[in-house]
Amino acid sequence: MKLEVLHQPDSAIAKLYLDPQEEILAEAGAMVAMSSHINVSTTLRKGKGGGVLGGLKRMVAGESLFISVFRSSNRPAEIYLSPTLMGDILPYTLQGTELVVQSTSYLASTAGVQIDLGFTGFKSLFSGESLFWLTANGSGLLLLNAFGSVYEIDVEGEHVVDTGHIVAFERTLDYSISKANKSWAGAFFSGEGFVCRFKGKGKVFCQTHNPGAFGRMIGSKLPPR
Known about the structure:
Elements: E1 2-6, E2 13-18, E3 23-27, E4 31-34, E5 39-43, H1 51-60, E6 67-71, E7 77-81, E8 89-95, E9 99-102, E10 106-110, E11 113-119, H2 122-125, E12 132-145, E13 150-162, E14 166-170, E15 173-179, H3 184-190, E16 194-207, H4 211-221
Antiparallel strand pairs: 1-2, 2-7, 3-6, 3-10, 4-7, 5-6, 8-12, 9-12, 9-14, 10-12, 11-12, 13-16, 14-16, 15-16
């Protein structure tokens, strides 16, 4: 499989070249265009994170109940995948490692990647972000989408990131969620809210824009139904 990410960073689209009998799994609705001989099926996905329970868990996390499977025939094929929000696409190769992914950031993966739902505890609930994050492990290619550009932070010690700007982070990092400001009043009036404090050694992948904050801003300006 060969990957090209086109039109980065503001309107990224993934162009995948599939070998004969090769397949890619993607979030339902991600396909933009493809070769006519690609076979498409919809599944709840078997194995870890699969089945009816796995599908319902993905719905709780803000993902689609179903996963689309695109498989080439006995000849090579091309497929284009794109996220819902305008922004960048992050390719990440899993090789026995584990990545924690912000819910709604999953775009696609190869068959060797296992996606499951991870409960992050009530510390996430009070941050105003999702109570659940996805965990990705196994081996293969994982495609994540971001709102805006993606940038990488190499943490070695401690680093602080706004919760709404996190796309994913490596499992080698420990984290805790706290106020950006020491006082509740300061956190409220500064507009910074909650942050994630990472400790250890590993990578954090961030997005330049906060989709939650953008949604609240746009939502307040829309006329009522």
